[in-house]
Write a structure and sequence with these properties.
With about 260 residues, the protein is α/β, with parallel strands linked by helices. It has helices at about 40-45, 70-75, 90-95, 110-125, 140-155, 170-185, 200-205, 220-225, 230-235, and strands spanning about 1-10, 15-25, 30-35, 55-60, 65, 75-80, 160, 190-195, 205-210, 215-220, 235-245, 245-255. The two termini are about 30 Å apart. Bound molecules: adenosine-5'-diphosphate. The site of adenosine-5'-diphosphate has 10 residues, from helix 1.
Length: about 260
């Protein structure tokens, strides 16, 4: 469980987030959504401690993240950000093994158990066949799966992902998010994922936090937040909600101008 209490952040004099609180329980996927520039990535960075909010706290299973030694924090929280490792000269197998670092002491080398865990993580994301390939030579979709495998090998119970579907074609978007949702639903991990595509959020998230105007404009189960009355003032366009094949879908009507939320 990740808890955020009263987080704020400014870049220079520009306040990006103020008084943001949220809770992400085990076994569920929490989506961070909102228009471009609404602070989703900034919030994710606050949640994994790469940025430290001058106000408020982040807790992981009740313990303050900032007070945990780095190695312990990395055993609890794994992060998948977009551009990590692009220039790496490592193979895929070596890249995934890096996820074992928080479990090794300073001069300890990876052992049979680490290799087994890394191989299991690659298998889980359907990428065992890539093990011997150069990481830098992979396609975007393959890379994303390998980075998720590295996070899995880290065996952290909390996983934070920043737009894991960016630059992926539609099939890979669904594949990657299917894997991510499985981690929450099958392995009972806590998953927090930044998504800008509301239809992907509708399909794969259990709960969403909608950012707008530097604050949480709405939060709660997908069914309650992804409704036109809530979304239209934040995004400033007409939105229609339909159901097809048992699945919630949002249709966008940009020609219908909506009065933007006064908080934005
Ligand atoms: P989102 O992920 O929702 O697009 P971000 O968290 O990336 O939003 O950015 C929120 C706001 O903060 C934007 O206005 C962005 O331009 C600004 N911003 C982000 N990173 C920096 C930075 N390193 N320095 C200055 N401003 C930044």
């Amino acid at each position: 469980m990740i808890g955020a209490h009263d987080l704020s952040w400014s870049y220079g004099s520009a306040q990006v987030l103020s008084a943001v609180s949220l809770s992400a329980p085990h076994g569920r996927v929490l989506g961070l959504i909102g228009p471009n520039g609404s602070g989703k990535t900034t919030l994710l960075r606050l949640l994994h401690g790469v940025l430290a909010s001058p106000t408020g706290t982040v807790t992981v299973d009740g313990d303050r993240l900032a007070a945990l030694p780095a190695r312990e924090a990395a055993r609890r929280v794994a992060v998948v950000v977009q551009e990590s490792g692009g220039e790496s000269a490592l193979t895929v197998a070596e890249t995934v093994l890096l996820g074992r670092s928080p479990h090794l002491s300073t001069f300890q080398r990876t052992g049979a158990v680490d290799h087994e865990i890394a191989a299991g993580a690659l298998a889980r994301v359907g990428a065992s066949h890539l093990a011997g390939r150069s990481f830098a030579g992979l396609s975007g979709g393959e890379r994303q799966r390998v980075l998720i495998a590295r996070a899995l090998a880290q065996e952290a119970t909390h996983l934070l992902l920043d737009e894991p579907t960016n630059h992926l074609d539609i099939r890979y978007q669904h594949e990657v998010l299917g894997i991510v949702a499985g981690l929450a639903h099958d392995l009972h991990r806590t998953v927090v994922v930044v998504l800008h595509d509301l239809n992907l959020a509708a399909r794969y998230c259990d709960d969403v936090v909608l950012l707008g105007g530097g604050r949480i404009a709405a939060s709660g189960p997908v069914e309650e937040v992804l409704v036109p009355e809530v979304l239209e003032p934040v995004y400033g366009i007409g939105i229609e909600r339909v159901r097809a094949g048992g699945q919630l879908h949002l249709l966008f009507h940009p020609h219908i101008r909506i009065q933007e939320d006064s908080r934005a």
